[in-house]
Amino acid sequence: MTAPAISRRVEQVMGMPISLALRGRHADDAVGEAAWQEALAELRWVDEVFSTWRSDSQVSRLGRGEVALDDCDPAVAEVLRLGDDARLSSDGAFDVWRPDAHGVRRLDPSGVVKGWAVDRAVAPLLALAETDVCLSAGGDMVCHVADPAGLPWSIGIENPLDPARLVARVPVHRGAVATSGSAHRGAHVVDARSGLAQDALASVTVVGAHLTSVDIDATTALALGVDGPAWLRSRLRTAVVVWADGRAETVA
Amino acid sequence: MKRIVLWVLSTLSTVVVLFGYHTSTSSVMATSSEGTISGSLTGQTTSGSGTGAATSGTAPPAVGASGASGGSSSVASGTVTGDVAQTRWGPVQVQLEVSGSTITNVTILRYPDSNGRDIQIANYSLPQLIQETLDAQGDSISMVSGATYTSQGYLESLQSALDQAGL
Question: Could you read off the pLDDT of A14-63 as tens digits, one per residue?
């Protein structure tokens, strides 16, 4: 079977590469390009509002207590609600308020924002007729194949211990794939209850309907460490877990 | 007949929920319904190995068929709408078109939408474990999922190779 040509674009937004793959009718034309620019504009707006790296973002100012939640864009409250849901379902392992190195609790909704932002930003791309879309923000992605009987996107799951290799592949017609791990940033996922990084799992990849929730669940399972795979099963998740020693297993 | 319709309705709820959130493990339920369902559910069946754990935990609350109560011994031909069933993922409601003892069509009126936004049926297969380099996979990999890339990490990553190759 000859795969249709894929048109690719990459931009840096939110401190990470945003990669787009398109196939089909609008893959290379002005309509597709306009939808891509619209998606990027949305992501840049999210970065302005939510970035914890920008001291003047609404979230940074909210975290310092300089503004109230009511003064922020309504999207901030929406994201904090998602974070609150995740805190409850993870028994506190996932929390947008986390102790920093000095034990001071800091507001960092980054674990919620990325998936949520891509779910929003992909909308103009999904509206492209007869066009297959795969939009990835730093390794977390939304996939869409216009024709349900068409060729699926084939997503490779990186080996966290050796990024030149893959541990799994998953064909996706419509859905989202998110991976949390320590491969590129050091141990940056911590259990919010202790402020400590877990070290049992090297990475967790979750596949599901919406990136917002699979991204949160991947991060939560990683933070839960040895309890992560059982927690994913309890949520009926489809996932790939890589243990610290390199063993990979599927959860389904 | 009423009992059969009720059973089908509750089974459909389960199938719908599974299609929405756990497509790859729904083959057992989908297959068991094939004999009685024609029409709109065809084409949604998927391959993949079913696991008992995933399907057994999803039994929905009872779904009633409106207009089918009382002592009637059979359901007349026409349209039967199920009550809204609340599942852990949200409301599910289905409608059947019945001709005598045959269900001729199934319509999904409502099904869960976790984000309150787009209604979209997720469709993906189970991940397959492999131990290979990207080269060994050739151009069959469209995108790579990995831990959050910083710009520096990205340069070393598989995704950059894909982008550069224009595959």
Answer: 878 899 999 999 999 999 999 999 999 999 999 999 988 888 999 999 99
Q: By CB neighbour count within 10 A (0-12 exposed, 13-18 middle, 19+ buried), where does A134 fall?
A: buried
Q: Taking 70 as the threshold, does the pLDDT of residue B93 lie above it?
A: no
Contact between A205 and B24 using a beta-carbon 8 Å cutoff: no
Q: CA-to-CA distance for B160 and B167, rounded, in angstroms?
A: 11
Angle among Cα A246, A157, A21 to the nearest 5 degrees reads 165
CB within 8 Å: A16 and B147: no
How would you class A219 by CB atoms within 10 Å of its CB: exposed for 0-12, middle for 13-18, buried for 19 or more? buried
Buried/exposed code over B122-154 (b: 16+ C-beta within 10 A; e: otherwise): bbbbbbeebeeebeebeeebbbbbbbbbeeebb
Shortest alpha-carbon distance between residue B115 and chain A (Å): 8
Helices (H) and strands (E) counted in chain B, each on its own, are 6, 7
What residue has token string 């669940």? A217
pLDDT in tens, A105-138: 888 888 889 999 999 999 999 999 999 999 999 8
Nearest to A171 among B21, B122, B124 (CB): B124
- Residue A62: CB partners within 8 Å, gap ≥ 6? A68, A69, A72, A76, A107
SS3 B60: coil
Look at B126 and A178 and tell me if their CB atoms are within 8 Å. Answer: no
Q: Which of A169, A170, A164 is nearest to A183 (CA)?
A: A164
Rounded to whole angstroms, the Cα distance separating A75 from A119 reads 13
- The answer to whether the Cβ–Cβ distance between A179 and B117 falls below 8 Å is no
- Residue A46 CA to residue A117 CA, distance in Å, equals 7
pTM of full prediction above 0.90: no
pLDDT in tens, A55-75: 899 999 999 999 999 999 999
B5 and B98 Cβ atoms separated by less than 8 Å: yes
Shortest Cα distance, chain A CAs vs residue B164, angstroms: 9
- Other beta carbons within 10 angstroms of residue B57's beta carbon come to 11
